[in-house]
Amino acid sequence: MATKDTCEIYCYDEEKVNRIQAELQKEDFSLVSQLFKVLADENRAKISYALCVDEELCVCDIANIIGSSVATASHHLRTLHKQEVVKYRKEGKLAFYSLDNELIKQLISMTLTDQKEEKVNV
User: Fold this and answer.
1) Which pairs count as long-range contacts for 43-50, CB under 8 Å and 24+ apart, including other chains?
2) Predicted TM-score (pTM) above 0.90
3) Does residue 83 surpass a pLDDT of 70?
4) 14-121: which CATH number, 1.10.10.10, 3.40.50.300, 3.40.50.2300, 3.30.43.10?
């Protein structure tokens, strides 16, 4: 017989709920959700990872790495730049991108490490 994954009666710890609600009101979760939303696209996640592996890549390199057109890579890079995930610099006619936020590198690294550990433990 399968166990239910919900409470079978309704009761809650009022003190705990009030304390956590107060903490939630102190924080701005819009930035957190925007960051995860922008990384939720697989190609943008791959671009971010590629920029973890190599600190700086031009748009053409990125397009080849993710197997897309330069236009598609540029679109993803603009989205990442708008959310302050990446920054760019121009060198002549080339645009080079790098991560603009060390936290992104840590998030990607931790997620991939955790994913690998889960596969080993299965």
Assistant:
1) 43/68, 43/72, 43/76, 44/76, 44/79, 44/80, 44/85, 45/108, 47/73, 47/76, 47/77, 47/80, 47/86, 47/97, 48/80, 48/85, 48/86, 48/99, 48/104, 48/108, 49/108, 49/112
2) no
3) yes
4) 1.10.10.10
CA distance 22 to 13: 14
Summarised one tens digit per residue, pLDDT across range 9-49 is 888 899 999 999 999 999 888 888 888 899 999 999 999 99
Predicted local confidence at residue 7, as pLDDT: 82
CA distance linking residue 42 with residue 103, whole number of Å: 18
Domain positions in the chain are 14-121
